[in-house]
Each structure stands twice: as structure tokens, then as C-alpha cells.
Write a structure and sequence with these properties.
Blueprint (H helix, E strand, L loop, with lengths): L12 H25 L8 H13 L3 H28 L3 H15 L15 H10 L17 H16 L6 H25 L5 H20 L27
Helix pairs in contact: 1-7, 1-8, 2-3, 3-4, 3-5, 4-5, 4-8, 6-7
Length: 248
């Protein structure tokens, strides 16, 4: 039987794992700031916004219905856009997506305020965090959950069971650190928002920009290295999808 192809992006865990933890912390930070700053609206936790959507619909609260629904749509569009960009730019995925994310997080500070039903000022941040989910892939080619922890908690629990039964998936060992990184980011974000208000978003924007610079340097210095590329299709693509992560 042929050995299963590793579809991780980047191919090397030396890059993938630190970036995953940093981006999870970034998402937790931005989500915490947004939750406190924008009347308990989640920036990246769409499960929470979906619950709020359901409650709003059931109570005929159309302002909150529009608020939650529009946020979910923007986040979904971010994931859509990020996946297309990941396929188009190939090995430049990290530099390109992280640069766009940093710009969007900063744009949120100067965007028009909008209304309660349609919080335009929050949409660039939500779009950035949706896009973030297309940056990294695990060994199976699945996008790594970088903006929410439910999947990480579930995979950690099932991984523990598989550890007892035989052996866990290679992705198991990343789940607890991902939860820890996102939780730590949320604590930092809450503290920053209390002190700086909306300007606290400059911290995750600066973190995204710093990661983008690191990714650009790696891509220029080691263009064919597994540190920045890999034999990977677009995130969450079917098994027969063409690889897009290799330098041509």
C-alpha cells in the first residue's frame, strides 16, 4: 500500500506549529477585544454568533438578527476569499494572507461605524479572522482551526480515546496548545481593551504584521524549503485536488 501523502502546509512543523499558536493567540485576542468593545459581538467565534442569531429570531429581534447574520456572512466570505488566495499564490500563501490580515485589522480602526444592525467597523476584523483559517493545513490537508476552540477540544478528547485504544492522529498533539494559545490571547485582549478600548486592536494587527514579515523573509531566504512550502492542495480540498503549494 502506498504511503499516505503529507498535505501539510507549510510542510515543516518547525514553521507550522509556531505560526498556528501565534495565530490562535491573535484570534483569541481580537475576539476578546471585539466582544467587549462591540456589545458582545464575536469576531471569530461563529458558534456564539449563531446562538445569538437563533435567540434573536425566536424573539423577533430583527436588529440583533441582522447583526449576527451579517457577521457570520462576512466571516464565511473571509474563509472563501482566503482559500481562493491560498490556491492562487501557492508558496506565498503565508506572506500574502498575513499581510492582508494585518491590513484588515488596522482598517477596522478607521472604518465607518455603521449601525447596530450592520456594524461596519467590525466587518474588516471579522473578514481578517475568517481569512486567517486558510493560512495553515494539517497533514491531511485540512485547515487548522485557528479562530475557535470547539474543534480543538473535541479533537483532544477523541485523541485521548485513540491514545488508549491504539494511537492518536498526529494532529492530536497540537490541540491542547491551540486551546492554551487562544485562551491566553483572550486574556491579553481583555486586558488591552479595558486599558485602551478599540485601539487595542493595534496589538493583533501588529502581531499579524510581524508574522507577515517573518513569512516574507522565510519565503525570500528559503524559497524551496519545507519551512515555507509543501506538496499541498488548497485547504480542505478533495483527495484528488492538484497541489498548489509547491514552487514552480
Amino acid at each position: 500500500m502506498a504511503e499516505k501523502q503529507d498535505k501539510a502546509f507549510p510542510a515543516s512543523a518547525a514553521t507550522r506549529v509556531p505560526f498556528a499558536l501565534a495565530l490562535a493567540a491573535l484570534a483569541g485576542c481580537a475576539d476578546s477585544i471585539g466582544f467587549l468593545e462591540y456589545s458582545q459581538l464575536f469576531m471569530s467565534f461563529m458558534s456564539g454568533n449563531t446562538t445569538r442569531f437563533g435567540v434573536a429570531v425566536s424573539s423577533f429581534d430583527w436588529e440583533n438578527t441582522a447583526r449576527a447574520a451579517s457577521t457570520i456572512v462576512v466571516f464565511c466570505f473571509g474563509a472563501f476569499l482566503g482559500t481562493l488566495l491560498a490556491a492562487w499564490v501557492g508558496p506565498w500563501r503565508l506572506p500574502v494572507l498575513l499581510s492582508i490580515e494585518a491590513a484588515l485589522l488596522a482598517v477596522g480602526l478607521i472604518a465607518p461605524w455603521g449601525s447596530f444592525s450592520f456594524p461596519l467597523h467590525a466587518y474588516p476584523i471579522v473578514l481578517a479572522l475568517g481569512l486567517q483559517n486558510a493560512t495553515l493545513q494539517d497533514a491531511n490537508g485540512n485547515s487548522i482551526a485557528l479562530t475557535y476552540v470547539t474543534g480543538a477540544v473535541v479533537r483532544f478528547g477523541t485523541g485521548l480515546a485513540n491514545l488508549v485504544l491504539h494511537e492518536p492522529s498526529p494532529a492530536f498533539w497540537l490541540q491542547a496548545p491551540l486551546w492554551g494559545a487562544l485562551s491566553t490571547g483572550a486574556v491579553i485582549g481583555g486586558a488591552l481593551q479595558i486599558r485602551y478600548g478599540e485601539n487595542a486592536f493595534l496589538f493583533p494587527a501588529a502581531l499579524a504584521a510581524g508574522l507577515a514579515v517573518v513569512a516574507i523573509v522565510l519565503a525570500l531566504a528559503k524559497p524551496r524549503s519545507p519551512l515555507v512550502t509543501g506538496n499541498a492542495p488548497a485547504p480542505d480540498a478533495p483527495p484528488h485536488a492538484k497541489a498548489v503549494g509547491m514552487l514552480r
